[in-house]
Amino acid sequence: MTGEINYQQFVQWITGENLYDDEELEALERTAPPSKSKFAQKKFDNAQEWCKRFIQAEEYIDNLQQMRKEGNLESVSLVAAKMRFDQYRDAGVIDKQSFMKEMRALI
Fold first, then answer.
1. CA 65 to CA 73: how far, in whole Å?
2. Crossing angle, helix 22-30 and helix 7-15, to 10 degrees?
3. pLDDT (tens digit per residue) in 51-87
4. Cβ distance 33 to 4 under 8 Å?
5. The pTM of the whole model exceeds 0.90
6. Cβ(23)–Cβ(3) under 8 Å?
7. Nearest residue to 44 via CA among 74, 7, 99
8. How far apart are CA 82 and CA 47, in angstroms?
9. CA separation (Å) from 40 to 35, 43, 78, 91, 94?
């Protein structure tokens, strides 16, 4: 296999719907991909990058939800938390005393 997929395989991967039977998929794997223009390659690369970012965003959200659950912070509004901590954004750091003060106000 060449490490590339065609459009139908991409749609199948994204949707989870099997568009081909096993025999057709094997034939597609043996078929050399058509030569691509620079424009087509750039579009394909952009689609791959978008998929990577989407997966990373999903993992980030899963991790954030897990941390909220483990920290008993599920009832804390993320919007309220963002607004309270925005004042520390420019500095990029927050001391422990300020952090505890903000968290007490949120909880």
1. 9
2. 130
3. 788 888 888 788 878 888 888 888 888 888 888 888 8
4. yes
5. no
6. no
7. 7
8. 31
9. 9, 5, 40, 43, 46
